[in-house]
Specification:
Chain lengths: 427, 427
Amino acid sequence: MVPHLTTALTGPLLTLEKQILDAMPRIEHWFRHQWQEHSAPFYASVDLRNAGYKLAPVDTNLFPAGFNNLNKAFDALCVQAAMSAVEKICPDTRQFLLIPENHTRNPYYLQNVSSLKSILQRAGFTVRIGSLLPDLAQPTEVPLPQGGSLLLEPVQRQGNRLVLENFDPCAILLNNDLSGGVPDLLKNLSQAIVPPPWAGWSTRRKSLHFTAYRQVAEEFCRLIQIDPWFIDPYFDHRSGVDFSQGIGLEEVQSQVADLLQKIRQKYQEYAIKENPFVILKADAGTYGMGVMTIKDPKELNQLNRRQRNKMAVIKEGQEVHEVLLQEGVPTFETVEDSVAEPVVYMMDHFVVGGFYRVHTERGIDENLNAPGAHFAPLAFQTPAMSADCTHQPDAPHNRFYTYGVVARLALLAAARELEMMAPRFSS
Amino acid sequence: MVPHLTTALTGPLLTLEKQILDAMPRIEHWFRHQWQEHSAPFYASVDLRNAGYKLAPVDTNLFPAGFNNLNKAFDALCVQAAMSAVEKICPDTRQFLLIPENHTRNPYYLQNVSSLKSILQRAGFTVRIGSLLPDLAQPTEVPLPQGGSLLLEPVQRQGNRLVLENFDPCAILLNNDLSGGVPDLLKNLSQAIVPPPWAGWSTRRKSLHFTAYRQVAEEFCRLIQIDPWFIDPYFDHRSGVDFSQGIGLEEVQSQVADLLQKIRQKYQEYAIKENPFVILKADAGTYGMGVMTIKDPKELNQLNRRQRNKMAVIKEGQEVHEVLLQEGVPTFETVEDSVAEPVVYMMDHFVVGGFYRVHTERGIDENLNAPGAHFAPLAFQTPAMSADCTHQPDAPHNRFYTYGVVARLALLAAARELEMMAPRFSS
């Protein structure tokens, strides 16, 4: 099932999709060349926004959860891609230690860990789950919502190796974004660890990602000769901000005003009848925390205590001092009258699936990845990496091809972002 | 749907399958290492025989037809694997010239060419079909049995490039086994050509393939500690044979007797109550031509003219002077009371699908790939590269995992075989 586009806005998107489909051999050739120059992260998910006139990534997650939401029929794609990823990054690996997030109270997250474990097992690895939970004294079975259970085991440090009881893994797969910083346990290990701990949110910045994405989008759009704005939202960033003290908000306000002005000009250029808005979010934030929508810079003068606190502190109690200001891309995809946002999953440089985050209570200009919010995952019914030119550009697998292309551009941006970070962080 | 094993013989096969499933992480690690040392052919299909007590490859095709028989639901696996294959072998390719067999009167073969073309297109390539048919004067549309048509275009030589009208391809994909020899048109080309023309049947020999397979099987069986005989049929070969003149048949007869004796000993060792038989086939043969079943060496004294002629001349009028003698592996898989033989398809080193060749009129000890014979392709319903240890070893996707392992062993043998041939043939 593919969400319906609001009919009034199908025109320009069809143009973009058609341009991408027509250029498919050139695009794939370009990607092949890029992947020879840059190493894809082990895995990633990309949140896309489809505004009809514009299709853009709004967030790239290097520690993706949600593998349980993918269409089971395409598990084999994940298995095949996982084999490729391991061949390239840690070919000698036989035994993986999978380190999940600590929020074991979220049964859906645990189901994701179970799905990831199953993918790696089916790719031919022995997998055990090592938990960083400080109060996990012994191996503990936690029940899964879809039946069965998951064994969480406390990790132990032995010299420069991370082990479990009777298990010395060859490599460590992180599914924990390390928002609270890299724990000493994970420092100076002799084992391969993917993604690198410094790709976690204690050191990663969305602004660097979108700086890399801007460059990728420019190169790509030169290739297929379109205005990069159709796939790249304007953004800006600001450090030294303190929401609780009100420090730095004036500067943010003026940046928001500049962004809104730039968006307004583009809307005029392309005769788009929307109200521009800006998304303000923590530059190192995740889980949809620390995100707000701004339509008028004045709103920043009128923040109440609750709104300030919501922006000031995010996951694992981290204070926010750096913010990303991002052109808002409204979503015009709907599923049964609710707003929907596609999320695309990749392993190695392959698209392995995706789903729609569907929100019944949110508007088209709001963040759908909100804590505590309900969303109905809706698995893509066709794979997202292959197009068929004999069908219409908006046929399901052709629409998904376009999604897969834009998601892979964000993946390539992540690869370049990690290259830029490596000299500072990798030992 | 998985064919039922004759119940009396499930025991030993379950043992073999269980051994393979238990060793899965070790096996996959071993394959990863092998694929770092050896380059997988672009694509291949492997005919397997499952005797219950024994599971073995009986033929490995480097120019596989039958892509149209694979389960459409797993097309994306082919597309992903095709991307990998191209990245490794000819990364700069944008435009493929696909050269099919000349038997354009076989509509199912044309459907295969159409499936291959579609896979490559969806992997992001421009594909056109270049025919070697000498009497094809101009581009010709041929109708496909499932609707639509295929445009065959005459190939032209321009200097050291093979081109079509207004089409200068970066690479050439052969789906023609060149039984009649490598045409001058294909010699000394500046374009990449995969598989190499010398992998065709004018230079390739089954006996060299099974020599390489023997070594692979020995290494693999040392890894999982089983008798290699469980996956490796005995074989022998003989050159200087002339069936029409009766030359060399005495030597063949004595080799057949030796093979039957060796098989009998193994049958005794494992208490197998079957009648041993040997398959005699052209060492460079294909399309199921030039194949006979021998249960008693005396049969070779009693060949009538028709039988001699059948063995003497095969595809494209090639005379047979070299024969392979192969331990017969009976098939105990049946589909609706007809004998069935699994065929596994691979691209790069990935298993991408398979189907059963089902034959209503043949016995369990006969060749099912017979010219003119009817077979009902039955696509595997689950992918063949991932196992799930929480299910029984004979659950469909676990059975297919075992098939995928043995097929990949044959693929690895083909990789080593081509390495052995390369110094003599590649320029």
